[in-house]
Amino acid sequence: MSLYHPFTNEEAIEYARSIPGHFRENAELACREIGDGNLNLVFHISDPADGTSLIIKQALPYAKVVGESWPLSLDRARIEREALQIQHAVAPDLVPAVYAYDNELAVTVMEDLSDHVIMRKGLIEGSSYPKFAEHIGRFIANNLFYTSDLGMNQQEKKLQAASFANPDLCKITEDLIFEDPYRDSPNNSFPENIRKEAEALWHDDELHLEVALLREKFLTHAEALLHGDLHTGSVFVTQASTKVIDPEFAFYGPMGFDIGAVIANLLLNFAAQPGWSADEETLKQRRNWLLATAAEVWNHFEAEFRKLWSRDLVDVTAKAPGYQDLYIQKILRDTIGFAGAKTVRRIVGLSHVADIDTIADEHAQRQARITALKIGQALIKRGRFASSFEEVLLIARDAAAAEGAVR
What we know:
CATH class of the largest domain: Alpha Beta
Structural class: alpha+beta
Strand order of the largest sheet: 1-2-3-7-6
């Protein structure tokens, strides 16, 4: 009989006490349930007397956002923990340390990042993060390279890929990103004031072809171990530090998916800026920084990936002249297409972003959604044919130029 049950605060404290060498003996521990996601319980356990703390994350057997009618496998907790351990091994300064785990209880105990802020919150508040592009580009490059056929033994990679089969959470991605937005799905969620724009997605045959091709890549291209949900809500930041969290959607898929997710979330904040910027000069500065950061993410990724390829390549056939350039071009095109798909789903799909949904002015909120949809659709249609990342920036600027007077 399974020992699994969701923790209470008191049980989380007792579990924290059982971890050797962390808290003082007989310490009076405090616990806060801080989970605000859709799938898990998250407890912050601390000793107020000396400031020692940690995080306990426990998977629920269903999606919190819907309830017990949407069951999910608890094995995703193992997948998340193993992904964190792999990612920490290749980028230790960019991923929280795992202290302990229990697969039967679906529990992972990890480093507390309370001195950081969730990046989405920081961006909404107008903060900039000068180290983010270099950090996230390095994280993605190292994680993807060293879990791919380029950077690890191909037979070991196949065994690792099998252990990261993640059907429940992949099904969420397949439905919410590649299917629901392009049909009249009961899972869709959007305000009536963009119904015309949402319904246009359902009848755009050119768009449907490109989405079908992206979905095929997601289903069949097991290139590397993906984080699987790498948005700005899955990144903790300070001015000098970046930490990537929550890889419970991890599985083996197309490399461009993770990079595209980061780019999409920067562009969603770009679309939202008229609702957050106090004046036209601030709006211009914020948008320029977001586009520059998006370009730097790609540039840092590409430079790091090429460096690792030149230094640590294990696949001798990949040394063929010209292969590296074609491989990078494929990742770029996938990145742009997936960025578009991730942008569109956050506007009309089940789960939105606070960057746009919490804009107070209704007109500015509507315009942000329309701008994001224009960017997303254009990226999807352009991805397969793109030759440089500059095309992403041009698409975003064109969508912004079409906004008219928003303020």
